[in-house]
UniProtKB/TrEMBL annotation:
Keyword flag S-adenosyl-L-methionine: yes
Binding site for S-adenosyl-L-methionine: N85, T87, R91, E129, D155, N213, L214, R230, N231
UniProt-listed Pfam families: CheR, CheR_N
UniProt name for this protein: Chemotaxis protein methyltransferase
Catalytic activity: L-glutamyl-[protein] + S-adenosyl-L-methionine = [protein]-L-glutamate 5-O-methyl ester + S-adenosyl-L-homocysteine
Amino acid sequence: MSAPANKPGYLREFEYGLEDFERLRSLSFAYSGIRVPDDKFDMFYSRLAKRLRALGLTRFRDYCAMVEDQAGPEFTEFINAITTNLTAFFRENHHFDYLRAQVVPHWLRRNAASRRARVWSAGCSTGEEPYSIAMTLLEADTRLGGWDLKILATDLDTRVLATAAAGVYDADSVGRLEQERLRRWFLKGGGQHEGRVKVKDAVRDLVHFQQLNLIGPWDLQGPFDLIFCRNVLIYFDQPTKARLIGRYFDLLVPGGYLFIGHSESLHTFAHRFENLGQTMYRKPEAAP
């Protein structure tokens, strides 16, 4: 790899080179399992420069030394800064259509005695995905009324989790939603909150947010009936993906569902899921 690093004609505010980038992306991988490609050299600089500015540092070398022990509060700031968080309400809408049309009727038959369902949104970012799941469940069937429904939403980034828990968004983020859905599930801000919306308590009450590193221990109260892990696997290497897929399988109830992102697939892995199409998978009812 070659990249411009503080040479004539390419000036930077802070001293930054390939050695710094390698140290930082190695640290990121060791903690999160996320592979950082060569083309993120400049992205690392732009996202972390504000941290050096806040800390009064002039060289990335010094910042690397600060975060390498993983013990201080700056390490959390480092992970938050480099985490990618792209999401939207009802993104990849076919998953929510399938949840409404197929998964909920399956639960009504299978879970009729317990009247209970558990969903996990793994890599929930700023909360649009788990809130979309909650809205779908609340809209899906009146027979779910009185059920014990809970959605666990986890992410590595503590900053986006704080945003998600607050449930407050720019009005532009809900601009494509139907007016009926907007009226039913969002409060419109006024005065100093003009241009903002807040998710109503009926939706927020279904969701619990928790910080979780997917490659670390999972202190979770499973099993789950449905796991959303969309556009997350793409950041990991093949061995890590395979381990995650196996762990998801084990944490699902027989007949449980796994939804992954539109650019992802399980076809290169030895796995035991049934392929439902459109990046949706199901654990067999009589799972080995």
